[in-house]
C-alpha cells in the first residue's frame, strides 16, 4: 500500500519546488550580505542563516502536508479551529502586534517574526473550497449557496486592510475570486456578487480614504508611470530596480557582483530580489525563476482540472492561483508593469511566514495530485483485471454405471 502511494506522488512538481527554494536560498545570501552589514550591523550571513532555518522547517511542514489526507481538511473539526485561529490571530495584532513599514502586520516570537495574513491566504482557500464543495447541489441558490461562505472572506479582508495592508487584502480577495469563479456557480450569481462587492466596498473606501489614498500610496502610482521624474523620492525604488534589471543583460554581472544591492536598491533580499537576480545572472537567472513558477502554477491548474473531487479541485486551483497572483504582483511591481505593493516573490524572497505558508500549501497540492494519480491507477488496475474463467465441464468424462 505504502509503495503504491509513494509511486503516485508527482516528483516533477516536488523537484521544481525544491530547486526554486534552494535557488532562492543562494540568492537571499547574495542579495542580503551587504544589507545585513550596512543597514543592520549584522553578520553578512545573518539573513541566509535565518532563511536556511526557515527552509528546514518548511521542508518538515511540506512533508507533513504531503502525507496528510487533504479530504480530512473539509471536516468541521478542522475548519472551525482554523477559522477561529486565523481570526483570533489577525485580531490579536491590534493588541500585541509590531508595526513594520507602517503596518501592524507582525508578531514578534523571540528573535523571529510571524505574519498572520500570510496564513490567512491559505485558510481562505481551504475554507471556501470546503464550503463550496459541500454546496454543489445548491450552488446556484444565491442566499443559501453563494453568500454564507463570503462572511469569512469579508472578515479576513477587513482585518488585513485595517492594519493597514491593502496589498495583501487585495491578493486574498483575488485568490478567493478564482475559487468562486471555479466553484460552478452560474454567471448570474457571479454578476450579483460583483454588484454586492462594489456596494460593500464603496462605504469602506470612503471611511478609509485617508489611509487608502495617502501620499505614500499615491506616490507609488505616480512613480509607476515614470519613476525618473522624481528619482530621489517617490520613484527611487523603481528607478533602482530598472538600473539593476537593465545592467544584467543576457548573462548578468556574475553571482555576488550586483552593484544596486550596495545600498541603492531597497529591500534587495525581499521585494526586489528579482532585480538582483537579473543583475547578477541575467536573463538565464530570471528565465529559471519564471519557468519554475509557471511550471508550478500550470501543474496546479492541471491537477485541479483532473481531480474529480470538487474539494480537491478547488484546493488545487486556489493554491495555484495564489502562487500565480503573488508572483505577478511581485514581478510586475519590480519591473514597472503594475504599481509597487511590497509582496515577496514565492519560494525565492526572504521571509519565514511566506515560505512556511507556501510549504504547507504546496504540500497539500502534492497530496491532491497523489490522490488523483493513485485513484486513477487503482481504478484502471481494477477494471483491467481479467474476469475469472467459467468452469467448462466435459460431459464425456462422467461415466454412469448401470
TrEMBL record:
<dbReference type="GO" id="GO:0015648">
    <property type="term" value="F:lipid-linked peptidoglycan transporter activity"/>
</dbReference>
<keyword id="KW-0132">Cell division</keyword>
<keyword id="KW-0328">Glycosyltransferase</keyword>
<keyword id="KW-0808">Transferase</keyword>
<keyword id="KW-0133">Cell shape</keyword>
<keyword id="KW-0812">Transmembrane</keyword>
<dbReference type="InterPro" id="IPR018365">
    <property type="entry name" value="Cell_cycle_FtsW-rel_CS"/>
</dbReference>
<feature type="transmembrane region" description="Helical">
    <location>
        <begin position="349"/>
        <end position="372"/>
    </location>
</feature>
<feature type="transmembrane region" description="Helical">
    <location>
        <begin position="78"/>
        <end position="96"/>
    </location>
</feature>
<comment type="function">
    <text>Peptidoglycan polymerase that is essential for cell division.</text>
</comment>
<protein>
    <recommendedName>
        <fullName>Probable peptidoglycan glycosyltransferase FtsW</fullName>
        <ecNumber>2.4.99.28</ecNumber>
    </recommendedName>
</protein>
<feature type="transmembrane region" description="Helical">
    <location>
        <begin position="145"/>
        <end position="162"/>
    </location>
</feature>
<feature type="transmembrane region" description="Helical">
    <location>
        <begin position="168"/>
        <end position="186"/>
    </location>
</feature>
<dbReference type="Pfam" id="PF01098">
    <property type="entry name" value="FTSW_RODA_SPOVE"/>
</dbReference>
<feature type="transmembrane region" description="Helical">
    <location>
        <begin position="193"/>
        <end position="209"/>
    </location>
</feature>
<feature type="transmembrane region" description="Helical">
    <location>
        <begin position="53"/>
        <end position="71"/>
    </location>
</feature>
<dbReference type="GO" id="GO:0032153">
    <property type="term" value="C:cell division site"/>
</dbReference>
<keyword id="KW-0573">Peptidoglycan synthesis</keyword>
<feature type="transmembrane region" description="Helical">
    <location>
        <begin position="272"/>
        <end position="298"/>
    </location>
</feature>
<dbReference type="GO" id="GO:0008360">
    <property type="term" value="P:regulation of cell shape"/>
</dbReference>
<dbReference type="GO" id="GO:0008955">
    <property type="term" value="F:peptidoglycan glycosyltransferase activity"/>
</dbReference>
<keyword id="KW-1133">Transmembrane helix</keyword>
<keyword id="KW-0131">Cell cycle</keyword>
<feature type="transmembrane region" description="Helical">
    <location>
        <begin position="12"/>
        <end position="33"/>
    </location>
</feature>
<dbReference type="GO" id="GO:0009252">
    <property type="term" value="P:peptidoglycan biosynthetic process"/>
</dbReference>
<keyword id="KW-0472">Membrane</keyword>
<dbReference type="GO" id="GO:0005886">
    <property type="term" value="C:plasma membrane"/>
</dbReference>
<comment type="similarity">
    <text>Belongs to the SEDS family. FtsW subfamily.</text>
</comment>
<dbReference type="InterPro" id="IPR001182">
    <property type="entry name" value="FtsW/RodA"/>
</dbReference>
<dbReference type="GO" id="GO:0051301">
    <property type="term" value="P:cell division"/>
</dbReference>
<feature type="transmembrane region" description="Helical">
    <location>
        <begin position="310"/>
        <end position="329"/>
    </location>
</feature>
Amino acid at each position: 500500500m505504502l509503495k503504491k502511494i509513494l509511486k503516485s506522488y508527482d516528483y516533477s512538481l516536488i523537484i521544481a519546488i525544491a530547486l526554486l527554494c534552494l535557488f532562492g536560498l543562494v540568492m537571499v545570501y547574495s542579495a542580503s550580505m551587504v544589507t545585513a552589514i550596512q543597514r543592520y550591523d549584522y553578520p553578512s550571513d545573518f539573513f541566509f542563516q535565518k532563511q536556511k532555518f526557515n527552509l528546514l522547517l518548511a521542508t518538515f511542514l511540506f512533508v507533513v502536508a504531503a502525507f496528510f489526507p487533504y479530504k480530512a481538511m473539509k471536516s468541521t473539526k478542522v475548519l472551525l479551529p482554523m477559522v477561529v485561529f486565523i481570526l483570533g490571530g489577525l485580531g490579536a495584532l491590534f493588541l500585541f502586534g509590531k508595526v513594520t513599514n507602517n503596518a501592524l502586520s507582525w508578531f514578534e516570537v523571540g528573535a523571529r517574526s510571524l505574519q498572520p495574513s500570510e496564513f490567512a491566504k491559505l485558510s481562505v482557500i481551504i475554507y471556501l473550497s470546503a464550503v463550496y464543495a459541500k454546496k454543489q447541489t445548491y450552488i446556484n441558490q444565491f442566499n443559501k449557496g453563494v453568500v454564507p461562505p463570503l462572511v469569512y472572506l469579508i472578515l479576513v479582508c477587513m482585518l488585513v486592510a485595517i492594519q493597514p495592508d491593502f496589498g495583501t487584502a487585495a491578493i486574498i480577495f483575488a485568490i478567493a475570486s478564482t475559487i468562486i469563479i471555479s466553484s460552478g456557480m452560474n454567471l448570474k450569481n457571479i454578476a450579483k456578487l460583483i454588484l454586492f462587492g462594489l456596494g460593500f466596498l464603496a462605504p469602506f473606501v470612503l471611511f478609509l480614504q485617508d489611509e487608502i489614498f495617502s501620499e505614500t500610496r499615491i506616490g507609488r502610482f505616480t512613480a509607476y508611470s515614470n519613476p525618473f521624474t522624481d528619482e530621489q523620492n517617490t520613484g527611487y525604488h523603481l528607478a533602482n530596480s530598472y538600473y539593476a534589471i537593465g545592467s544584467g543583460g543576457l548573462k548578468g554581472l556574475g553571482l555576488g557582483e550586483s552593484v544596486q544591492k550596495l545600498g541603492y536598491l531597497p529591500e534587495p533580499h525581499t521585494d526586489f530580489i528579482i532585480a538582483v537576480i537579473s543583475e547578477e545572472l541575467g536573463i538565464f537567472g530570471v528565465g529559471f525563476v519564471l519557468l519554475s513558477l509557471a511550471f508550478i502554477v500550470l501543474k496546479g491548474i492541471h491537477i485541479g482540472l483532473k481531480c474529480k473531487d470538487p474539494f480537491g479541485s478547488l484546493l488545487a486551483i486556489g493554491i495555484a492561483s495564489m502562487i500565480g497572483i503573488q508572483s505577478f504582483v511581485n514581478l510586475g511591481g519590480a519591473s514597472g508593469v503594475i504599481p509597487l505593493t511590497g509582496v515577496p516573490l514565492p519560494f525565492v524572497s526572504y521571509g519565514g511566514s511566506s515560505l512556511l505558508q507556501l510549504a504547507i500549501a504546496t504540500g497539500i497540492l502534492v497530496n491532491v495530485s497523489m490522490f488523483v494519480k493513485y485513484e486513477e491507477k487503482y481504478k484502471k488496475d481494477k477494471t483491467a483485471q481479467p474476469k475469472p474463467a467459467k468452469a467448462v465441464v466435459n460431459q464425456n468424462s462422467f461415466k454412469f454405471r448401470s
